[in-house]
Amino acid sequence: MLEFAVELFSDYTARTILLGAASLGVVSGVVGSYAVLRKQSLVGDVMSHAALPGIVLAFMIVGVKEQLPIFIGAALSAVLAVFVINLVTRNSRVKTDSAMGIALSVFFGLGLVLLTYVQRMPDANQAGLDKFLFGQAEALVEKDVLIIGLTGFFALLVVGLFWKEFKLLCFDPDFGGTMGFSMKSLDILVTAVIVSAIVIGLQTVGVVLMSSMLIAPAVAARQWTGTMGSMVILAAIIAAVSGVTGVALSAGFENVPTGPAVIVCVSVIAFFSVLFSPNGFFTLKLKDARSRREIKKDYVLKALHDLALEHDDPGYAHSERLLALGSEKGFSVKKSLWALRTAGYVESVGEDNWRLTQSGIREVKKLSPLEKDL
Amino acid sequence: MSGRGENPVAPAIRVTDLTVAYGDKTVLWDIDLEIPKGSMVAVVGPNGAGKTTLIKSIQGLLPRVAGVISIHGKSYEKQRKEVSYVPQRGSVDWDFPTSVVDTVKMGSYGDLGWIRRPGRKEHEKALGALEKVDMLEFAQRQISQLSGGQQQRVFLARALVQSASVYLLDEPFQGVDATTEKAIVTILKELVGGGKTVLAVHHDLNTVSEYYERIAILNVGLVASGRVEDVFNSENLMKAYGGKTSFFPERKAAKRAV
Prior knowledge:
The structure holds two protein chains of two kinds. By secondary structure, chain A is mainly alpha-helical.
């Protein structure tokens, strides 16, 4: 494994590819955070799928697999899809989610039809066009990485310059509008930045999975952080690490396309974050269980106190069964009693009888100061 | 203290012939309204009366079919910085990853203009505003951890940072605790005492006379506007709410007299 890694990093071609994957990761992590914060994750999904017909059409027009025309074609058809969504939702009773579903399937379907058609052409130029579906990082050359780097740089520059304006746009666009910032222009700017991230991800990750590269790192990062700045940075790191790992995986195993490999990595991180972060599913469940245990313990302690009061004898012992009677079904008194014994609040007398200790009586007093004295 | 662009004779807000429509539905119809400088004004009316629409279209957030808005005698566009806005608390996502002080700082973005970032001065100002709304200890807290009343205080602090002369508030008392309501009223009255103008969408007819000097009663058209003691009566409320309100100001006034 280590040997493989050393080989990967010392090889010039491999280094180029990894650099490309890492830069793509940084850009999509940062830009994707905006898609997620604006609750427009699905728009990213539509845009990346909608890039396909643009890619194929650009190829059909130019006749060769040249980068620039393909990028322009991809960007134009992605933007056109967003335009169609807006047009449909504004001028009909179709809701946004349906409009997005329609736009995605129409554009992607059209792209697949065109792709199938082009691939049947007798010419050999079109070979490899289908790699745009799932991405093929192995094919990245220096020039590609340069374009990824440059486009990414400009995307990040825009985000850096308009940091506070984008924050307004995401959090409270109406308020931003009253302060004289044009929310429409900012909306266009954010969309442009997202489209550029999608375009540079086409070769590496492919149109089908590019949206996950935007959304998953941002979702994962959100679980661990509480400010926009740290979220954006963490998303960039997560996406870059996933990009590099995915590319390495796809290089290490034969016939593993890069896109899926990268997405598996980023999804694992996202999944883990959603489950185990401080606000994650399991962490909350754990906290829940802990507080329920505490409450149960207090309840049992109080019940022992009440029984002792009834008998007017602090040392009066009661059986576990009796304690369980006063509580709802399935309520395990035993565990609470054991925990209380460990804490030194109760002691067992004989086989199955329990009573409060002096420190247990003090604890009850602390929990409910108005309790009668034993 | 006179604000940056105040014309001493012009009203703080003048709305002329304002009409707003969504599709084929008219939401506001031919509103003429004058809000004198230094007054505290309630906007009341039933659901769908266009109260929020009025607040938003004064600030050019909605396209208007017709109408002219002027603030201290000049067009709103020229007087943006004279107007502070407190939107409905529920209009934003409180799960957004940001801290209380950073949210309040947003009020200074307008003065900063494009690209420039808030610095030390803006931070101090935000802390000052938080102190005013008694939220200083929460400055570094995540906004997702705030209660409804605290959220509303943060929004008010953000508006205070704007240091404007006209305050537009959309239901500032919606879903807040009694202490917060009192605190907000006190701050608003202070603002008015200092010559500022406050216009707030208000729901609770019981507190109108206690909180406000003037009132605008709205139901698509403007039913009445003026001093509370002059126009806040059952006749006007019937006109605005139809039979759907059991609140009669005269009865309450009579009770108070007894």
